[in-house]
Structures are given as C-alpha cells and as structure tokens.
Amino acid sequence: MSAASFSSLLQASEKRSPFEDLIGSGQGSNSVAVTALPQGTVRKHFKGYEEVIIPQTPTAQMKPGEKLIEIKELDDFAQAAFRGYKSLNRIQSRIFQTVYHTNENILVCAPTGAGKTNIAVISILHEIGEHFKDGYLHKDEFKIVYVAPMKALAAEVTSTFSQRLSPLNMCVRELTGDMQLSKNELEETQMIVTTPEKWDVITRKSSDMSLSMLVKLLIIDEVHLLNDDRGPVIEALVARTLRQVESTQSMIRIVGLSATLPNYLEVAQFLRVNAETGLFFFDSSYRPVPLAQQYIGISEQNFVARNELLNEICYKKVVDSLRQGHQAMVFVHSRKDTVKTAEKLVELARKYEGLELFKNDAHPQFSLIKKEVVKSRNKDLVQLFDFGVGVHHAGMLRSDRGLTERLFSDGILRVLVCTATLAWGVNLPAHTVVIKGTQLYDPKAGGW
Ligand SMILES: Nc1ncnc2c1ncn2[C@@H]1O[C@H](COP(=O)(O)OP(=O)(O)OP(=O)(O)O)[C@@H](O)[C@H]1O
C-alpha cells in the first residue's frame, strides 16, 4: 500500500462517521459515505511497519417479521429452476417481491458470495412468467441479455444458466469475442450471454434492430465496473438501451448486479432505478462468511529492505493461518512473482523451521497424487508440491492450472500463490487471503 493511501486510511480511523448507525442496516436509500474505520479497529507498531486490524463485521440479525421464502412457495415453473434449493437466502427473500412480481429496474449491491446469481435467475423467471400464456411459453416474444464482465465469466454463466433453465427448455448461448450466431441460432436462443464490448458492437449497428427490439431484460453483472476503465462501454450500452426504450416506448428492464459500491445512488440514477423501490444495498454484515481485515503499511524506504520485510510479513501471515489449521492464498502482481514468492516462503520456512506446517506428506492420498503431479512438465509445480505450496497464473498450461486448483480445493496444497486472474471466475475456498503489495505498475503512467 502506498504511503499516501495508508496515511489517509489512518486519518479515516480518527474520524467518526455521521452515518455509523446506518452501516449494517442493509437498506437502500441512504447515501453512506464510509469515512471511518469500524469500532474495535486496532493499530499496532512494529519495526519498519504498522498494522491496522479491522475486526469482522457481525452478521446482521434477522429483523422482526423477516422470513426466508421457501422454494415450494414459488410458482411451479419457477421451482423447476431452483431444484436442489430449499429456500431463498435472506437477500434473495428481501428482493423477491420487487424482482419477481414487478417489472421495475433494479440495482442490487451485495458482498461477494451473497447469491447474486439467484437474483438474476429470479428476474429471468419473472420475464418467463410474462410470456406464459394459455399454458404455453411464447419463446419467440422475448430475448434476455446477460452482460458478464469478461469472456471467461461469460462461458461460466452460460453453462450455469443453461443448466438452471434447462427444465424450462430455455436455450442459453454465449456471444462473445469474434463469435457469430447464425439467424437460426439467434431465433432459437432466449438468453444471450455476452460481454459489454460485444453487446456494444452488436447494438451499435443501427441497420439491424431486429435483435435489440426483442430484448426485454438486460442483466448487467458487476456493474461496479462503471467506475473502472470499462465504464464508458457499459455506459454507452446502457444509454443506447434507454434511448431505445424512449423512442419505441417498449419496456426493457435493467437489472444491475454489483459488489458494494460507495456511489450506488448515482449508479442507480444512471440505470433509471427508483432509489426508493428498486435499489437494494446490502453491506458486509450480509456476507455469508464474515471478513476480518488487516492492513500493513511499510515505512521502510530502501527497496531491497522493503521487499525483504514484505516477504517476512507475508510469511508470518501465512504461518499464522497454517497454525490455526487453515489454508492460505497469497495474491501477487506478476506471474514471475508467484514462483518467487512461493520459493521465498519455502526458504523462510526452512530458516524458521516451519516447514512442517506447510508440508502435507502425511495426507492419505499424498503419494498417489504425487504420481500424478510428477507427470507435469512444470518443474516449479512439481518442486513446490513437496512443500505443500502451489502457484497459479494465466501463463501456466490449463491442465496444470486445473490440477493446482483441484489440489488446493482438496486441501492437499496448503498455500497457493497466485495472480489476480484466479480471482476472476474461479471459486476456491480459502480462510486467509494475503494481498502482497497494493502498488501496481501502470505502463501508461510509467510508474507505480
Ligand atoms: N438460496 C440459496 N440457498 C443455498 N445456497 C445458495 C442460495 N443462493 C446462493 N447460494 C450459494 O451461494 C454461493 C454464492 O452464490 P453466487 O455465486 O451467486 O454469489 P455471488 O453473489 O454472485 O458472488 P460473486 O460476487 O462472487 O459472483 C453459491 O455456492 C450458491 O450455490
């Protein structure tokens, strides 16, 4: 973390937020400027660095009268898309009335893992319900467009929704990159999963409006990317959708799904979401697994000494987690740094006699799995395996990446050092996540 951002974090801890009581309310219409660190935050000083420990937010209590909606209460056709589920979770139950029974635009901001996929499913079921007439689904009347932030995610969304909607005979297809769908394929498809860039290109061709005229529901996943480099593309396609709604006077419902955004009121306004009725904001007290955070600011100026310290701190955090019997993931900024950091962890473990914490050779399947691992031509993967450490980045072969993911998820690897690519689209459970360094090199600016 840079010195400037760390000091602003510390300054923030000294202010009290006027909205403190609202944080954790999980309600929609208040603009909460988070300017203070939560109560219970502790600051510790060490040689060369300072640590700020933010305790986990307690899980929000059920409100009086709040109840979970059971799947068996849903319409028969809707139950088919929820096979294997007993009930909607808290967030889904809270938004159900608006998402399923109305055609309002909505924006849902919720922490990761809160179950936003099922919110999209509910909005799709509403749309399907609109076209169920005389016991028959009029599939040619509508198209649903799901905008996923990247190609890899679009593929995953396509497969998830194909499976969920297969009992309803809905056809879900991916349309990304330089992919084309034939006229026939488009006709057969009710749900198109695409990326902002691809949908932008398709809708920009004003000569052929036949597809966009059929769109009745536009789901935009990870809409917080509006704040990012990709923002202008998302903005353009939303603006075009809104213009089409105005000029044709036909409704296209917009459903925005997002991580918790600080400026959700503005995003809601932009998506034409009514802040009173269509905006749902759930803060970290709705996380399925509460999150405690620790920030470390390094004051050491010398580059080599700072790196050494960074590695030592990283090692210490990983060991703290392993001692409690939990796996750990370490995120680094470059592919090269994955192996370097993994090797450094092993070196420090040797130095501090901590190797036994990392190694997992007593695992009943260790020798069997080792036979599979040694077949890999990735020598780092093979060497690090013996120490219970794995690496994962986009430059590795897909088979090696897949193997590493499996070994970590089965608990055979105790530590995984990876780049941010793993955070997109792969769900791996880890109790502890260390983000090693928050400074990113920006080639455009030519600096950190
Ligand atoms: N009603 C439910 N009952 C039980 N499990 C659920 C329910 N809704 C969602 N889940 C589970 O919660 C997990 C997280 O759901 P999901 O991937 O939709 O979260 P998300 O909010 O989209 O997360 P992300 O921000 O990471 O995309 C999944 O494993 C899903 O099966």
Automatic annotation (TrEMBL):
* Entry's Gene Ontology molecular function annotations: ATP binding; hydrolase activity; nucleic acid binding; RNA helicase activity
Please indicate which superkingdom the organism of origin belongs to.
Eukaryota
Instruction: Give the enzyme class.
Output: hydrolase
Q: Where is the Helicase ATP-binding domain?
A: 97-279
Give the matching PROSITE patterns: HELICASE_ATP_BIND_1
Q: Cite the entry's keywords alphabetically.
A: ATP-binding, Helicase, Hydrolase, mRNA processing, mRNA splicing, Nucleotide-binding, Spliceosome
Give any single GO term for biological process: RNA splicing
This entry's Enzyme Commission designation comes to 3.6.4.13
Q: What is this protein called?
A: RNA helicase
**Source organism per UniProt:** Gossypium barbadense
